[in-house]
Amino acid sequence: MSDQTHDQQGESRTFPPDPDFAASANGTADLFDAAEADHEGFWAEQARTYLTWSTPFTQNLDWSNPPFATWFADGELNACVNAVDRHVEAGRGDKVAIHFVGEPEGDSRDITYAELHEQVQRAANALADLGIGKGDTVAIYLPMIPEAAVAMLACARLGAPHSVVFGGFSADALHSRIEDAKAKVVITADGGYRRGKPSALKPAVDAALDHDETSVTDVLVVRRTGEDTAWNDRDTWWHEALERAAPTHEAQPVEAEHPLFILYTSGTTGKPKGIFHSTGGYLTQAAYTNAIVHDVHRDTDVYWCTADIGWVTGHSYIVYGPMTNGVTQVMYEGTPDTPDQGRWWQIVQDHRVTILYTAPTAVRTFMKWGAEIPARYDLSSLRLLGSVGEPINPEAWLWYRRTIGGDRTPVVDTWWQTETGAIMISPLPGVTTLEPGSAQRPIPGISAEILDDEGKPFTTPEQVGYLVLTKPWPSMLRGIWGDPERYKETYWSRFGPEYYFAGDGAKYDADGNIWLLGRVDDVMNVSGHRLSTAEIESALVSHPKVAEAAVVGASDETTGQAVCAFVILRQEAVAEADEPGEGEALVQELRNHVAKQIGPIAKPRQILVVAELPKTRSGKIMRRLLKDVAEGREVGDVTTLADSSVMDLIKKGMDAPASD
Ligand code: PRX
């Protein structure tokens, strides 16, 4: 990692804040002192500054029963009122909340806060008509269309926790998430537009509900593509339900600790974890970080976060943070290369976007496509760039700043997780001297350390350890839905109950900046999407021809990591796979099987059929060695293998064709 801070010319470059930017930045140096002086008081002040409470709180943090925290517990508020109603009440109803850009060219519309207000009220009434009330869960499976935000906010209005499932997940993945959360209603669409054509969504919902028992009574269907779709008794068109519903709805204040949403994320086992978040603490930190890190200025900025609503970034930095701050934002439905590779830059130019928040994988893709593409557009409106989801290598960071940011804008690399709810480690663009490739320091109010194997904190530069968070924070997960033991075990047992174990490796550099070095557990990060090796392995072994499978995340220039699978076939399938041409067909079959079980994002880049897997004498698969093979490296120490010749056999098979 030692050359991480050097760009292609071998220069080490840092970027002090621009004085003009600093002069009007929301995030200032004194926040660090204030948070240091009084951690809880600091957060209470943010909760009062950024939010409107229907019952003001008097309690701050309660950490008497770790790891179960409460924040602002005797206060009451409604997240939708904070994100929508109060802007309208303050006379800003005509302000654009969302510049929606559909993928088909010309398919755009602007939605003001007043329009959003009416939509969320009608949607809340429509959901209430279906029997949804406080504490009921609702699953949302939608493309990137404004209705996704409306659906989430309507749930929040009723105190009904939503569980958004990414539209790229399969029917099976959707089914298990619906049932785990016992959702009563699913909100979906006939489809959305992707890569220039309609892509159906509703059939996956139908398949997900095609089981003997389901908790779901009703499905609301947004008409987006107008394509024919099968219809069931439980289905209602969204637009018809909203038209029928009353246009006004009294929002229900909930206790600060009332769960706002559940979001499933991959862990180290095959079963995804339903991470759930509170209302008051979560919203406080989502709004605060959007203000101090993204530096949103309500009256002048046009903000664009390119994440999908199905991931936590879409929750915190499309819906809850920016809308609570009353900003104007862009929402784009489709892919960056439709109709051509300039689509994003066309959008920035058309809407005069000032703040862009995206993922390193996107930046690296644009680098590959070439600087001449963004150069055709006027990107001079941009004043801040952000990155999230995986480490951004210094070359990509520098390219982003130079090519997209006109060598002018700060770039903030923000580290956080589904579990943390909001940004935790990041530069403040008006304060921090930027170090390309590093997320740098915990933001004001957050405390982190790096521990060695024994759990001792260290500050020695370049020594690699484990990132932990040392103080509770308002937007921390409140648990794993229905599984408090797994919550304790996963996050609070590795280094004892005071340390939240993030699962990421990290180190300090000589200047005390934190460098995130990727996961230390069996979680992969593919294009910023979190995938579990165990989940893909169990998808593979559910195929009748597979006896055993091992999955590793191998480095990939564009996607960060790529899924590589090693499978042992069942006896009867071995002979068949040896037939000419059959091996490749089988690999395709297995890749498609994973896509069907989990979703296309989990499709292995490469599947290698092997006779044996490298195992220790106690039978544990040595993924480290498989990773060496998948990354084309010299295989590491094999002395603990039960049979050291296994690796030679696997390496020989490595010339098997990779498929897309
Ligand atoms: O490994 C870290 C990586 O993404 C993981 C969290 O994934 P998820 O819950 O899906 O949330 C992604 C969006 C917040 C982390 O454990 N990660 C996220 N941001 C960064 C990062 N790794 C390095 N640098 C980052 N800025």
Automatic annotation (TrEMBL):
Its EC number is 6.2.1.1. Its cofactor is Mg(2+). Acetylated. Deacetylation by the SIR2-homolog deacetylase activates the enzyme. Residues 535-620 form the AMP-binding enzyme C-terminal domain. It catalyses: acetate + ATP + CoA = acetyl-CoA + AMP + diphosphate. GO terms for biological process: acetyl-CoA biosynthetic process from acetate. Residues 30-83 form the Acetyl-coenzyme A synthetase N-terminal domain. InterPro entries: Ac_CoA_lig (IPR011904), ACAS_N (IPR032387), AMP-bd_C (IPR025110), AMP-bd_C_sf (IPR045851), AMP-binding_CS (IPR020845), AMP-dep_synth/lig_dom (IPR000873), ANL_N_sf (IPR042099). Residues 1-10 have a biased composition (Basic and acidic residues). ATP binds at residues 389-391, 413-418, 504, 519, 530. Pfam families: ACAS_N (PF16177), AMP-binding (PF00501), AMP-binding_C (PF13193). Residues 90-481 form the AMP-dependent synthetase/ligase domain. The modification N6-acetyllysine is found at residue 620. One of its GO terms (cellular component) is cytosol. Belongs to the ATP-dependent AMP-binding enzyme family. This is Acetyl-coenzyme A synthetase. The lineage of its organism: Bacteria, Bacillati, Actinomycetota, Actinomycetes, Micrococcales. The gene is acsA.
